């Protein structure tokens, strides 16, 4: 009986640790929701309790040095590689929200939220107004 309780206790704590180890932070491969092509590697990092994301690698052949021609303000004609595309998500339960995401292809910014969809998949939703009017991409964890 003591052995069974010990085993169950160990399994319980392992389960808790695996859930806690799941995080939005790290490197993610973006997939174009229209074409299905791999587009970039994005690193999500934490600063002052908020989440930010920047493009660390462009995967499309011939576009590795592309600039954001359609962006406005300080980002106009700046390299997409290294560009911050999510600025200051706040944690709200299982969701990170209350920030904007930049689409470097169009130069437009959208409200966004992010949630984990399993252990190695991230649901990224960009929208205008309210969350029903937008589009979703699924990013995949990059194993390092």
Automatic annotation (TrEMBL):
It holds the Pfam family DUF2147. InterPro entries: DUF2147 (IPR019223). Keywords: Signal. Residues 26-141 form the DUF2147 domain. It comes from the Bacteria. Residues 1-21 form the signal peptide. This is DUF2147 domain-containing protein. It comes from Gramella jeungdoensis.
